[in-house]
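Teaching note: in complex prediction, the entire set of molecules is handled at once rather than each chain in isolation. The prompt given to students was simply: 'Predict the structure of this complex.' The entities are:
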Amino acid sequence: MALVLSTKNKDFFEQVYQVVRLIPSGRVTSYGAIANYLSVKSAARMVGWAMNASHAHLDIPAHRVVNRIGLLTGQHHFDSPNRMQELLISEGVEVENNLVIDFTKLFWDPMLELNLD
DNA sequence: AGCATGACGAACA
DNA sequence: GTGTTCGCCATGC
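The expected output is the structure of the full assembly:
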């Protein structure tokens, strides 16, 4: 594995994975929202990094994580360029032109969802 | 050590 | 409302 992670961001990665695993099927969230939830507000890019490394973790629904406007920016990192969109559609998420329809409606904010009882 | 890049996001112009 | 710039922080060259 080319990625050699320091203890610091290794912990960060694990936290990201934990949150991503909690995303319900048919819902989506953003990199920034996860970063914000982890109190690393300006580390949205690091969340994307974590997802890139999520290849080692088979139970990470990375397709449910898109950018702040609902764009499937990570589609190219899947097996097939269309894989991410297909996975979302199979869960009932409408996707058109790599953009999640009704993104704000399907948006799953860990900050809210995990704090509210 | 410096420079470029990236699954991002917010602030400006 | 669109395009550009900057901040963020880890990685690769």
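Point out the following to students. The longest strand of chain A covers residues 29-30. The longest helix of chain A spans residues 7-21.
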